[in-house]
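Q: How do we represent a protein-ligand complex in a form that can be generated token by token?
A: Start from the inputs.
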Amino acid sequence: MTKRILIPATAILLLGGAAIAIAAGGNRHGDHEAYHQARLDRLFDAYDLNTDGAISEAEIVASRDARFALNDVNNDGKLTSDEIRAAIMKRAEARANRMVERMLERSDADNDGVVSLAEFEDTPRRSGRKMMKRLDTDGDGVITRAEAEAAKGWRHRSKHKDSHDKKAETGR
Ligand SMILES: [Ca+2]
Ligand SMILES: [Ca+2]
Ligand SMILES: [Ca+2]
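Then emit the structure tokens for the protein with calcium ion bound:
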């Protein structure tokens, strides 16, 4: 039960983000897709209380109230800064644990439970090769400030391609 902590705003972002990723063809990267599937799983774990595969408004309200009760350690109907801090730390720890797992999955090629420098360098997203490929537009082997400036937001765009492009088009 103590695992069911997820703030509503995050949950809404999770749902929106997952929908965008699926619409944009999130299978470009296998692990990207798996990551979004895991986020969806967590969303439904947290909110679909009767496990019928759909999240109702009543379930959102019930989940929220349950979360409040869970965070209200002394049960006085109020959340103190300490209680809020404890809830945030618990959430941050769960998130850190998931990130550690993903890092090991991605980088620990020989499965010995640690990431060597060689494994770290071989990890596609850590190697810097992708950054060089995308930012060194004239291919001279160095990234100039002008090239970086021209590519501003590439990191963000690659993550939220559709919504960002739409915003750029409408100028908002
Ligand atoms: Ca349900
Ligand atoms: Ca309290
Ligand atoms: Ca290793």
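The two ends are 42 Å apart (CA to CA). The pocket of calcium ion (ligand 3) is lined by residues 108, 110, 112, 114-116, 119 (CB under 6 Å).
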